[in-house]
Amino acid sequence: MTLPLDRHYAVDLHASAERMPQIRRILAAHLRYWRLEPHIPSVCRGVTELLANVHRHIGPGARCTVELRHDGCRLTASVADDGPRLPALPATLGGGLATVAALSDSWGTCGTATGKVIWFSRRLGTAPAPRTPLHTVPEVTAQPEPLTSLA
């Protein structure tokens, strides 16, 4: 089975300590399906830290969205919430974001119309090989048609 190179998964949830193990299992299942097993521990830990921050700073049961994106070269995980306050700058990183920074190649945050998104990404190694088409189309060359006489 060939998977498309651009993959996306999103789940809306309420951030609660009781749901963390279930969320980690769901994310791990998607990463296994995408054949990204080596990244399961780091991605699940990073998302858990971001969800713990939502729980801590927005409140228990706060609504949020977790997304995974994979383009063949990078894997990006993000958590969007309704909290208006952006996290501290890197010089003053607290425990959760310091962990996310250590587990990723890059991370960031941006405000949205309804709150914010915090994301982190990991490089996946070499670029994927070009995908081969499922079916090849034979080359067609024009052949002159014989002339027929009209009688």
UniProtKB/TrEMBL annotation:
Domain Histidine kinase/HSP90-like ATPase residue range list: 14-119
Alphabetized UniProt keyword annotations: Kinase, Serine/threonine-protein kinase, Transferase
Pfam families in UniProt: HATPase_c_2
Gene3D superfamilies reported for this sequence: Histidine kinase-like ATPase, C-terminal domain
Segments of this protein annotated with the region Disordered: 130-151
One Gene Ontology molecular-function label: protein serine/threonine kinase activity
The protein's name: Regulatory protein
Organism for this UniProt entry: Streptomyces natalensis ATCC 27448
